[in-house]
Design brief:
Radius of gyration: 46 Å
Number of domains: 3
CATH class of the largest domain: Mainly Beta
Structural class: mainly beta
CATH architecture of the largest domain: Sandwich
Largest sheet: 5 strands, mixed
Number of strands: 32
Mean pLDDT: 85
């Protein structure tokens, strides 16, 4: 639509592509006339969907069964684009559209009510104007119920590995969609699931396998689980076991007196803390020594990293009875007295 202002200007509002072309201005009076030609180009801007400057965009979206899901398709362009959704059964819905379960709002937003498993499909939004068209492909996945990640054992742990023996750290987790699990090693390196090296294997089930653990692999391991709903972490401290080392024990034969008590000391350290057991002559095992005869007593320290033992020789000395306070050889007494 155009109109004249005064005698020299033509004003046109809300340009359309049809307004493009040549315009001629003619000035005429009794003395003659004059003309001037103008060429008008109308520039159209192709549609841009959700601010994404691409002809075709693919995005994945998740929804919970029986819920309501809204998918945006906001299109901008010159002239204003027309928005249309192509449904999985190849039905075309132009905005606005109002159905009992499917609604296409005026701004292009697709609303699906009472989500069904059969809605797992591709929904395509097309925005078109004279400048071109853009397309948004939405891959909708319907889930039974969303659950944030949760460890089966939510507590931090301390594991003591046997030196050189393959060890596993368990970080089993539940969640929907199934969480992605990753591990941070003591040196700060992150491993995702399915990584295998000469020293480590990360399984998809949350198990970290450590081959031939030694002191270099001891430290803090951090397990992380993430899905669309949440993110959690837990800490597992790995210590490499130390075989028991007996620190204090008799290095020479020990002499005991028959009938009297005797203490034998056997102190050890290790990781985990060792248990101590004594084997008496004859093979009987006791928690602590009971000295009642001579022979070799074996102290054994044990943990899951190994065993250590020492042998202590005990000699029992016996003395013949001896009366210490003897009465005099001749005793005199008076008749009727008590002495």
């Amino acid at each position: 639509m155009g109109h004249l202002i005064g005698t020299s200007s033509l004003t046109t509002e809300h340009f359309k592509l049809l307004d493009a072309g040549e315009y001629m201005c003619v000035a005429r009076n009794p003395g003659g006339d004059d003309t001037k030609l103008y060429k008008l180009d109308v520039v159209a801007k192709p549609p841009v969907i959700n601010g994404l400057y691409a002809n075709k965009t693919i995005m994945k979206v998740m929804a919970v069964r029986h819920s309501k899901k809204q998918i945006d398709c906001r299109a901008e362009g010159t002239p204003p684009p027309q928005i249309m959704w192509i449904m999985p059964d190849n039905i075309f819905l132009t905005a606005p559209y109002y159905g009992s379960r499917i609604v296409v709002h005026k701004n292009g937003t697709l609303e699906i009510r009472n989500i069904r498993p059969s809605d797992t499909a591709d929904f395509v939004c097309v925005a078109r104007n004279n400048g071109g068209e853009s397309m948004l492909v939405v891959q909708l996945e319907v889930l039974e119920m969303l659950r944030r990640p949760m460890f089966k054992n939510p507590f931090n742990e301390k594991i003591i590995a046997k030196p050189g023996k393959t060890t596993t750290l368990n970080c089993s987790v539940d969640g929907n969609p199934p969480p992605d699990i990753s591990w941070m090693l003591p040196n700060g390196t992150w491993f995702s699931s399915g990584i295998k090296t000469s020293q480590f294997l990360t399984g998809s089930n949350g198990i970290l396998t450590i081959y031939s653990p030694d002191g270099d692999k001891a430290g803090k391991y951090r397990c992380a689980a993430r899905n669309k709903v949440g993110y959690i972490e837990k800490l597992i401290i790995l210590e490499v076991g130390q075989k028991p080392n007996i620190l204090t024990y008799p290095t020479r034969p020990v002499t005991g007196v028959s009938g009297e008590s005797l203490s034998l000391h056997c102190l050890s350290d290790g990781n985990p803390k060792p248990t101590i057991a004594w084997t008496l002559p004859g093979g009987h095992v006791l928690d602590r020594p009971q000295i009642n005869r001579k022979g070799n007593y074996v102290c054994k320290a044990h943990n899951n990293a190994g065993d250590s033992s020492v042998t202590v020789s005990v000699i029992i000395v016996a003395y013949p009875p001896r009366i210490m306070n003897r009465p005099p050889q001749t005793i005199h007494t008076i008749i009727g007295s008590l002495n």
